Amino acid sequence: MTKPKKTVIFLSPRYYPAIGGVETHVWNLSQELLKLGFNVLIFTTQHDKNLVLKEKIQGVLIERLPFGKINKKLATWRWMWQRREELKKADIIHIHDIFWWYLPLKFWFFKKPVYTTFHGYEGNILPRWQAVYHRRLIEILSKKTMAIGEFIKKWYKQNPDCVSYGAIKPLVNKESSLTNRQKNTAVFLGRLESDTGVWEYLKFIKNLKEKIKLDIYGTGSLELSIKCWAKQHRLSVRFCGLTSDPNRVFLKSRLAFVSQYLSILNAMICKTMVVAIYKNSMKKDYLNLHPMAKHMIVVSSPEELASKINNLNPQQEQQMINTAYNWAKKQTWTKLTQEYLKMWGQANG
Predict the structure, then answer these.
(1) Which residues are CB-neighbours of 77 under 8 A, at least 6 positions away?
(2) Bridge partners, residue 115, by sequence
């Protein structure tokens, strides 16, 4: 007799076709679970009005909170209450950053275990006591938790059951592209906002004697001012919008101006030197507590970056790149999925 499939419900602020770190994390985790015979259901938002409210994509059933209800607590809780039977029947409920969606139902299903993954931090500010308290409360209400990054332990006073830095797909048929790229090339991938250090990267290339060609992938509130500034200073900068294929982007460049874990992994798997700028003490820990921190260039200013780049000899650079690459290629989605299964007590499932 065939065993009934176990059902996992993920709550995620956004999901495919949205692009981002959490979206990529939940998408790939879902695909791995499908391979292992799980049913996967996603509760997420209709972040685009053109998306249907319920559909199945590559085996994953998606239910979307209507666009007009996003960030409205009572409307969201009512929508969740309407799905209480699905939640009741689920074998595993795992929440990514939006525990407040489930909060009233947690007290209704008090004995039902729920799990949480904490991704990132709140913008470009140090966490206030309210944010710390909020996360501590979620940790208490969750059976087990995962933190994306060791810095969360320090800054949010948490004690997660597992710490991860995400996962990456291995390169396929692109090994020949890992060498022979142009020396004076760089790529920035991220939001065009002050906390990503985009201004500092631009000031760095402006002050270099050798011109660097920079491709910028991303959008944000600073886009227009950055374009004007780059044009004013005659910088060799191209604005390329968004990309769904970061590997293609990184394979063309020597330097990767990135400061988020998923982008860091993407750059490392492409043997591109990671350059990251921090602007406050939490971001400093975010980067310096990374397992490969010594094999990245982590700085606080354009001047420090220029000094490190100028003093980096080719042999040292290649050693840093190779060590980071060997680490990155071990961070597979299969490995991360096993960490989730272990948390859920499904390691043999």
Answers:
(1) 101, 103, 104
(2) 94, 144
What does the pLDDT look like over 245-285, one tens digit per residue? 888 889 989 999 999 999 999 999 999 999 999 988 999 99
User: How many C-beta atoms surround the C-beta of residue 230 within 10 A?
Assistant: 19
pTM of the model: 0.90
CB atoms within 10 A of CB 321: 21
Which domains does the chain possess? 7-167+332-344 (3.40.50.2000), 175-328 (3.40.50.2000)
* Token output for 154: 């320090």
| 11: nearest Cα among 110, 82, 117 | 117
User: Are the C-beta atoms of 302 and 279 separated by less than 8 Å?
Assistant: no
Contacts for 12-18: CB closer than 8 Å, 24+ residues apart: 12/42, 12/43, 12/44, 12/96, 12/97, 12/98, 13/44, 13/45, 13/96, 13/97, 13/98, 14/44, 14/45, 14/47, 15/42, 15/44, 15/62, 16/57, 16/62, 17/48, 17/51, 18/47, 18/48
